[in-house]
Amino acid sequence: QTWERLLPPVGGGWEGAGRAQREGEGSPGVTALHFVRGPQADRFDGEPFATFTSQSYTVTPRSDRVGLRLQGPEVRPTGAADVISEGMTTGSIQIAGDGQPIVMLPARATIGGYARIGTVIGADLDRLAQLPPGAAVRFVEVPLAEARTRTLAARRVLSEGQGDGVRSAEERIRMQADQPEEANQAAQPDDGRAQSSESADAA
């Protein structure tokens, strides 16, 4: 997939990575990453969750194909940061023991042991993969229905190509997302699989 081809090798090496879009929902120079709540989001209720969604984070040089390691205000869960190891997807947002987020990328392990506050939606995985060290990001929570709509719209934009080359990908996704949900669903094959809020991949 597109985002896998744009990723640097394990252990770093971000030279040549694509330039990320900088459309930070009211914050110039900050990339907005939309997410849905994860399975341990309730551990961060109150001030921790408010901090996570209101402050920006910076991509660190420690990032690689395994995960995007971020630096910013600490987010501390209620109780311990670790959990019984369980499966996780690309886009899963773990909060490590130091209170810093790690967004999992394609070379991640199949299971993880830190609490997951959320999952970046499928529509934003491309921009997630392009973020170089020093880039600023902000997490924007969306409901599951909007996550699905945005992801279906992003897939339609990709299938239709670059269009007139004037509108940005994000603008075209927003235009597609404004169309009725029935139209978006009609453009996608229905394989009958149940969707989980943890993956938010709108497959």
Beta-strand portion reads 15-25%
Q: How big is the Rg?
A: 16 Å
Which strands sit side by side, in order, in the main sheet? 1-8-5-6-3-2-9
Q: What structural class is derived from the secondary structure elements?
A: alpha+beta
* Rounded average pLDDT: 74
Distance between the termini: 14 Å
Tell the overall outline. Answer: globular
Low-confidence stretches: 1-24, 182-197, 199-203
SSE order:
HEHEEEEEEEHEHHH
Major beta-sheet overview: 7 strands, mixed, barrel
Structure, explained:
This protein has 203 residues and is of the alpha+beta class. A hairpin with a 7-residue loop joins strand 2 (56-59) and strand 3 (67-71). The strands form two sheets. The protein has a seven-stranded mixed β-barrel. Strands 4-7 form a two-stranded antiparallel ribbon. Helix 4 (144-160) crosses helix 5. The protein has six helices and nine strands. Residues 1-24, 182-197 and 199-203 have low confidence and may be disordered. The protein has helices at residues 2-5, 47-54, 125-130, 144-160, 169-177, 181-186; strands at residues 30-37, 56-59, 67-71, 82-87, 92-95, 101-104, 111-114, 116-120, 136-141.
